[in-house]
Amino acid sequence: xxxxxxxxxxxxxxxxxxxxxxxxxxxxxxxxxxxxxxxxxxxxxxxxxxxxxxxxxxxxxxxxxxxxxxxxxxxxxxxxxxxxxxxxxxxxxxxxxxxxxxxxxxxxxxxxxxxxxxxxxxxxxxxxxxxxxxxxxxxxxxxxxxxxxxxxxxxxxxxxxxx
Length: 163
Description:
By secondary structure, the chain is an alpha/beta fold. 26% of the residues lie in helices and 25% in strands.
């Protein structure tokens, strides 16, 4: 079960007790924010992209959108989301519950700069009805992140228009 997988992973860092399970769906940013009673921007959504035969995960703020030019500049390929049916086999968690905790071996995880605005964020915990409250340093450590990237747009206050 994906929740158990995420819980076991978070237990390595003493964070498993922070997981919240809901009676309602938290599968989208809006639903998660409603279930948690927070602003959508505080949801740390995990986006899964095809990368060769595998995938890369980018954890970004709920109000951020992928900027194709920035993604290509950073990763050397077009930002192509994994098809829904490929997410669970490649990542280890299903759509709606994708998180960076307890993912399949070889999955690369990055954190997007859009998250740095917040002290605390809420990523999913392996299911479409769960989340975990983490401070940014806790997310950095528990996610196994390979580093910070700047591949999203729409979250900066005075972001320049793209031509």
